[in-house]
């Protein structure tokens, strides 16, 4: 063993610090060895004597901290959880030393920071158990030590440790946002119907709750009518004023069970329009059901402005007439929810429930001058899509939207042009004309500069024209795989689109595997996307294009292909933009099941008039050819004539109003359109989305707006008479929240 070398000029040391060596193999230390007691930098965790803390003793302190200071409401289960946690970690000094108050304040801050709802309970936007587990790791001697956790907080604000102050949290978030890419596709997320949070409405708490039960085909649907009733009561027309001199007309909803013994009186009832076992129309709510007489009923809006079918929620105003011979006019006398009462409700008017704007639902209408959102009303703390709630992430995401899309870039003062989404419907890949049309459309966008490329292409099925996949005349797996292989060959010629855009594929009723069993009939929704068995060649095309472009080394998000469910949702900048995509020939089903009224009220109204280009967003004559474009510009510069709206525009308005008022994509009984009820939250249109892509091949392409929601229908991409008619698709502008129908002759 080599001996340790001593320095040539040893430092003077004190004899008391010298440790003599007991072996010749070790030399004298070069520096003095301190024999005194070293200060212990790691403090031992003091033991805390746990106590059993009753929740009643903690309730006043929790009320002052959560409710008065942070505007939160704490549930009884959460209060009990906090009492157990404080008694275990703070001990008997929880009140005298103020340990519990500081701990509750940190828990409330973390709850707000992680997007929790206004009611502090497990699963309401955040996890109280995860917060307490993280706080417990940062406690010493019953106190919360700020900044003890060394983990970094991720972009979504996940739980890593309590922050010392709110200013520190905000500054860290702003610094992190500055370092992120300004590519808007970074903030785009496609949400599958089976990945969307399963929310149910609790009528007692008047709040949405996350379902923790295992999915079932037959869950309890009783919350539906209470959900509509509470939505109506938030409408100003159903709120009675306390002022004596107020002349405003208000409405009052009467439960069906309360009609007994009140014959000859006029009432307004809310319920489900259904067909009784005897084949007569009836109205049903949670208290009972009653037969309807709609022979003299006037639909609202008048002039045949909405569809009314069994399975829809409706408001009926009429006069109740009792039977002369009462049979079964007591609750429980007949089958049904709550039983059927005798007599009839002679309908005077019938209407759908009024639609509620997105701003009202999320409480965004209470924003003050400083940009802060008030705490009254709305479901702003509910995370409907799993991307963060409006009140937790809305302000931050709007800053990112302004930075990515709205801010002026460059010396010429031009804004970022990447704000369009291209939508194509009914793409039959087994038709050679469709592939030629796709080449023509892709060529238009591939020639654009990077700043004007679309954000995404939404390609909606059916991807084959044959009905009954797997049947004798419906095609097989090999033919279907060859269709997507042909699409991959077409896409390979447009590298700019593959490396800088997102392609979203939504299946139709003819696509596998559901069409194997339905054979052209309506399949249950939501339905899963196209299986990966058929999409491998398309994915390889995107991988090759991204490798050639080298997007991994830049801040640009690489292109990708996503096969999602039907329906599905596109979230852009978190809760700021929500786009619902749904493929169904819903107009034909409405025509087959609708109720025909003898008195539509047409004689009492003047026919509406519109101006070209003013309120009608669907311009059927807009062609992208150069000659036709010049003619269209000349027509726009000419004086705007006033004329009657075309039937296609009125049909689009009627369809949009019906679907958005009902608040669901499938307002039909399950015998007409099966629904997997435990995933019914994926077909709900509440809150109202910013855009609804309703792909219906039986209706011409249109773009209309209703209550702030833009409803788009791309129609059929390649028309049946392709020799005379051009191919049609729709462009959606994210900033303007407006769509535009485009056409191209091939």
From TrEMBL:
Subcellular location(s) of the protein: Nucleus
One GO term (biological process): error-prone translesion synthesis
Ribonucleoprotein found in the keyword field: no
GO cellular component, one term: epsilon DNA polymerase complex
Region (Disordered): 142-184, 599-647
rRNA processing recorded as keyword: no
Keyword entries, A-Z: DNA replication, DNA-binding, Nucleotidyltransferase, Nucleus, Transferase
Start-end of Polar residues biased regions: 599-616
PANTHER family in alphabetical order: DNA POLYMERASE EPSILON SUBUNIT 2, DNA POLYMERASE EPSILON SUBUNIT B
Protein's name according to its UniProt entry: DNA polymerase epsilon subunit B
Taxonomic lineage: Eukaryota, Fungi, Dikarya, Ascomycota, Pezizomycotina
């Amino acid at each position: 063993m080599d001996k340790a070398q001593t320095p040539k000029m040893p430092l003077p040391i004190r004899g008391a610090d010298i440790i003599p060596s007991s072996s010749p193999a070790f030399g004298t230390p070069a520096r003095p060895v301190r024999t005194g007691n070293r200060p212990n930098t790691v403090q031992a965790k003091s033991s805390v004597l746990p106590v059993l803390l009753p929740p009643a003793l903690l309730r006043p302190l929790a009320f002052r901290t959560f409710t008065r200071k942070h505007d939160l409401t704490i549930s009884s289960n959460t209060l009990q959880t906090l009492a157990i946690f404080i008694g275990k970690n703070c001990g008997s000094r929880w009140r005298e030393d103020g340990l519990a108050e500081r701990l509750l304040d940190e828990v409330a801050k973390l709850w707000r920071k992680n997007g929790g709802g206004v009611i502090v309970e497990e699963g309401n936007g955040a996890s109280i158990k995860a917060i307490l587990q993280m706080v417990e790791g940062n406690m010493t001697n019953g106190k919360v030590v700020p900044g003890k956790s060394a983990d970094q907080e991720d972009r979504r604000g996940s739980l890593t440790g309590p922050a010392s102050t709110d200013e520190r949290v905000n500054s860290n978030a702003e610094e992190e946002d500055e370092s992120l890419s300004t590519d808007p596709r970074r903030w785009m997320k496609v949400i599958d119907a089976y990945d969307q949070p399963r929310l149910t409405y609790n009528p007692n708490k008047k709040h949405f709750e996350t379902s923790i039960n295992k999915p079932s085909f037959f869950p309890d649907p009783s919350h539906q009518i209470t959900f509509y009733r509470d939505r109506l009561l938030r409408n100003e027309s159903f709120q009675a004023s306390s002022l004596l001199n107020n002349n405003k007309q208000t409405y009052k909803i009467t439960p069906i069970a309360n009609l007994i013994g009140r014959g000859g009186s006029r009432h307004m009832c809310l319920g489900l329009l259904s067909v009784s076992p005897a084949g007569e129309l009836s109205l049903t709510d949670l208290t009972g059901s009653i037969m309807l007489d709609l022979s003299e009923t006037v639909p609202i809006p008048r002039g045949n402005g909405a569809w009314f079918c069994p399975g829809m929620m409706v408001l009926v105003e009429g006069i109740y007439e009792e039977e002369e011979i009462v049979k079964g006019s007591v609750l429980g006398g007949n089958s049904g929810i709550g039983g059927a009462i005798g007599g009839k409700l002679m309908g005077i008017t019938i209407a759908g429930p009024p639609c509620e704007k997105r701003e009202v639902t999320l409480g965004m209408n209470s924003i003050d001058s400083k940009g802060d959102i008030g705490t009254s009303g709305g479901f702003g703390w509910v995370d409907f899509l799993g991307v963060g709630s409006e009140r937790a992430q809305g302000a931050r995401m709007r800053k990112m939207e302004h930075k990515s899309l709205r801010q002026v870039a460059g010396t010429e003062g031009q804004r970022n042009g990447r704000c369009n989404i291209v939508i194509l419907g009914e793409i039959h890949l087994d038709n050679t004309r469709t592939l030629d049309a796709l080449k023509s459309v892709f060529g238009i966008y591939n020639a654009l500069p990077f700043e004007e490329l679309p954000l995404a292409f939404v390609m909606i099925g059916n991807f084959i024209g044959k009905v009954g996949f797997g049947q004798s005349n419906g095609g097989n797996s090999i033919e279907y795989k060859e269709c997507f292989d042909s699409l991959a060959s077409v896409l390979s010629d447009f590298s700019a689109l593959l490396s800088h855009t997102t392609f979203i594929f939504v299946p139709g009723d003819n696509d596998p595997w559901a069409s194997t069993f339905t054979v052209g009939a309506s399949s249950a929704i939501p339905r899963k996307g196209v299986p990966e068995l058929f999409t491998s060649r398309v994915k390889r095309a995107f991988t090759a294009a991204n490798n050639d472009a080298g997007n991994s080394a830049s801040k640009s998000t690489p292109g990708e292909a996503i096969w999602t469910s039907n329906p599905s949702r596109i979230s852009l900048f978190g809760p700021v933009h929500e786009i619902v995509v749904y493929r169904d020939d819903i107009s034909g089903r409405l025509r087959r099941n609708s109720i025909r009224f003898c008195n539509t009220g047409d004689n009492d109204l003047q026919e509406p008039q519109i101006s070209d280009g003013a309120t009608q967003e669907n311009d059927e004559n807009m062609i992208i050819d150069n000659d036709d474009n010049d003619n269209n510009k000349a027509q726009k510069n000419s004086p705007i004539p006033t004329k009657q709206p075309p039937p296609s525009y009125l049909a689009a308005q009627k369809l949009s109003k019906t679907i958005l008022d009902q608040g669901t994509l499938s307002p039909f009984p399950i015998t007409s359109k099966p629904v997997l009820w435990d995933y019914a939250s994926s077909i709900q249109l509440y809150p109202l989305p910013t855009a609804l892509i309703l792909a219906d091949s039986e209706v011409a392409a249109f773009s209309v707006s209703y209550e702030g929601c833009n409803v788009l229908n791309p129609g059929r991409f390649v028309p049946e008479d392709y020799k005379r008619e051009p191919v049609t698709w729709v462009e959606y502008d994210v900033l303007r929240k407006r769509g535009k129908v485009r056409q191209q002759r091939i």
